[in-house]
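User: Some background: our group keeps a shared notebook of sequences we're curious about, and every so often someone picks one and asks for a predicted structure to add to the entry. Today it's my turn. The entry only has the sequence so far, pasted here. Could you supply the structure so I can complete it?
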Amino acid sequence: MRMTVRRLTRAATAGLVAAAALTAAAHSAEAADTLGSAAAGQGRYFGTAVAANHLGEADYAATLDREFSSVTPENEMKWDATEPSRGTFTFGSADRIVDHAQGQGMDVRGHTLVWHSQLPSWVGSLGASDLRTAMNDHINGLMGHYKGEIHSWDVVNEAFQDGGSGARRSSPFQDKLGNGFIEEAFRTARAADPAAKLCYNDYNTDGVNAKSNAVYDMVEDFKSRGVPIDCVGFQSHFNSNSPVPSDYRQNLQRFADLGVDVQITELDIEGSGSAQAADYTKVVEACLAVSRCTGMTVWGVTDKYSWRSGGTPLLFDGNYQEKPAYDAVLSALGGSGDPGDPGDGTLTCTATYTRTADWSSGYNGQVTITAGGEPISSWTATVTLPAQQSVSSLWNGTPTRSGNVMTVRPSWNGTLAAGASTSFGFTVAKNGSDAAPAVGTCTAS
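Assistant: Of course. Here's the predicted structure to add to the notebook entry:
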């Protein structure tokens, strides 16, 4: 009961924040396109890793809130942070990130449930039977705390060795529980939160090689036997010694062909200038070419806080200025750096939300799309629902869904004269939350 109350309180707070931000968020004619809105126009999310201790920095929070549609806690959901003593969970820092994300209408990726690193010392001291119990208790405790609030979980992280063997990595779980620990973790995770996407996540698997082949074989086996796995995460840490592989897209596609989503989960590319920008473009274009590549996450907001800060690997420099890599990513996503510039020929629209009917268990919402100073032939808008709510019907628009985010495009009503308006509507089941949805920026073509 305590956790249910906590989630309802969080959702109500998030709804108030989101409602207050609707007007500012909706006016794409007055603000530049962003990574999140441009990615949403492609039916994908664009996220970043977040550290709770930086959320109090104004420029950090402002850049995060403006640009990204998904967050991954950098360290705050790892085992040492959430269960430092057996059976005693601490969620304060992770809650802070989730609260902030929900207040901005962002999805959350959970990272990570079972990993050989950042384990408290007590885990390694357990015998096999106790370790199995502790692993399952940890999954249930962490996922139970956030049930219904996390879009995707990295259930098992980095379980395969580097090099050419394709063998499993030595870890307390592998050494004491054997190969079956990964399957058991996924089955436990599915029972803990059936609505969450369950991912396997690893690095140096971006191209076809012995390590990615081993992961591929595992996923193929899981799918053939009904082991619950929904997605595979590719960390995609690149530099001059480990560049973007020439078969990157083909590798993403072969995993997607197994029937799982693929996600780029920890993207950073060391370098600067046009060379770095070109590499980021390759990654984005590869994801867009694979229909089941559902989104991309860069591993940090600003170079100055990156784990590879000396290599300046991110899209914003230490002063939060956009780098050439940012412009390249935005362009590859189909966005524009300044859509509201008068006279630049860029097509614009705005999206505004109203609740048109309300009853105890649900409500009807309406989003009005208004063309800017030029006629448009199509539009795209995003609606992010509070975690508990669900849409039962939608009219005058064509939706695609990713978690609690709907990306809506026209059904028959895409063409608008300058200044003209149309709308789409939807019916929502409240499921205990009366919070308002958040409407993202409108994009026009």
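Suggested note for the entry: Residues 36 and 366 are 22 Å apart (CA to CA). The chain has 14 helices and 18 strands.
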